[in-house]
Amino acid sequence: MASDNKVRSRIATFFGFERHGTDIKTEVVAGITTFLTMSYIIVVNPAILSEAISIQGYSDGQTFQMLAIATILAAAIGSIVMALYANRPFGLAPGMGLNAYFAFTVVISLGIPWETALAAVFVEGVIFMAMSSVGARRYIIEFFPEPVKFAIGAGIGLFLLLLGLIEINVAVADEATLVSLGNVASDPVALLALAGLAFTIVLYAKGVTGAIIAGIVATAAAGWGLTLAGVVNGGVLTPESLPPVQYDITPLFGAFIGGFGNIDPISFIIVVVTFFFVDFFDTAGTLIGVSQFGNFLDEDGNLPEMEKPLMADAVATTCGAIVGTTTVTTYVESSTGVEEGGRTGLTALVVAVLFLASLVAVPVVAAIPTYASYLGLILVGLIMLQGVTDIKWQRSDWLIPGGLTIVMMPLTASIANGIAAGIISYPLVKAAQGEHDDVHALQWILAVSFALYFYVTAGGVIG
């Protein structure tokens, strides 16, 4: 008993419970809550990355399991660093949006090998670490156009929403209109996915903790139930066969090193820059937003020692690339744990422990059909659309860059294209308004650079 009290006292002292007005029970509950709300990434991230990553000698199911393990390890590492170094109650995991950019834009559209794409993630993480260590964040914020910064989240949300609807066969290709409504009434996948989506939305609307992962699991279970009952044939609502258990991630671990040997300088730089900017502002915005719930901000609206959680993000991204997954970022779902009273790094440490514990469920993850996992994309995409409220639509210098950033992402299937369109248009609009002094010289440099990017990618120089 005395030893237990001694341990508790050390934990309280290390995390500063008295200063933050919390205790172990509160922090543990907060950690469990945060994990449940963000655990869907264990299923969704592998579903997205497996579209672009294939490993010779391994089945799609085995690759899926490797990616699930990489996802879990990256999330655990990031959350541990956040807990022990930054002492903040924020959970980290591979970021939604950036995983889609990695798979559908970088690897599939641009034709860049996935190993090279992981190398770009690694470089982005190293750059982020270097800049975080010297407090360079404020310089980036000064020259990145605000309308673009605030529009990125909504644009990614719309992109994810479209990807999700396509995967569940609700949105299909059409020669006349490019996209149209699929034959939902006669498609078992679409019918079950829509029923699962409705169930997930109801749970989310009622404020149920872990609504997304619960919806995914329930939909997958329904698919297996209908198959085993003979209502539909095998392979329609379920995988045709289950892969053998795969815990060896050797083919993924360190694969980024080989990626450095196959680099096109222009495309590689563009990919690194896009990863960096999206990750940077997504993380910074999330940190500020979640910190508001916990009253962590100072009187100027800034998060004290913000470089520490940014460093945790950078370290996790670098380690994530090493184990074989995409950019790791702070999750907005951390706000649920903060609302439960989480105020210190112990909350994040609990998140990390639960991620590691979920390794035992990796074989089960492979049994979840892709359409079920993509329900997470749809709901997360809808949630991210709330970012449009931060845009000052009544001002043309916000309307045009912000609008272009948002619509270009889903319409060109590229997050980079959306950011580029917004960056190019911002100084043009400001100059047309006679507000040249409001445009930083680096903003002009960025605009010209991304105009060159459009010329290169649209002119066939890349790919």
Automatic annotation (TrEMBL):
One of its GO terms (molecular function) is purine nucleobase transmembrane transporter activity. Keywords: Cell membrane, Membrane, Transmembrane, Transmembrane helix, Transport. Its main location: membrane. InterPro entries: Azg-like (IPR045018), Azg-like_bact_archaea (IPR026033), NCS2 (IPR006043). It is found in: Cell membrane. It is a multi-pass membrane protein. The chain crosses the membrane at residues 28-49, 64-85, 92-112, 118-136, 148-168, 188-205, 212-232, 346-368, 374-391, 403-429, 441-462. One of its GO terms (cellular component) is plasma membrane. PANTHER family: XANTHINE/URACIL PERMEASE C887.17-RELATED (PTHR43337), XANTHINE_URACIL PERMEASE C887.17-RELATED (PTHR43337:SF1). Belongs to the nucleobase:cation symporter-2 (NCS2) (TC 2.A.40) family. Azg-like subfamily. This is Permease family protein. It comes from Halalkalicoccus paucihalophilus.
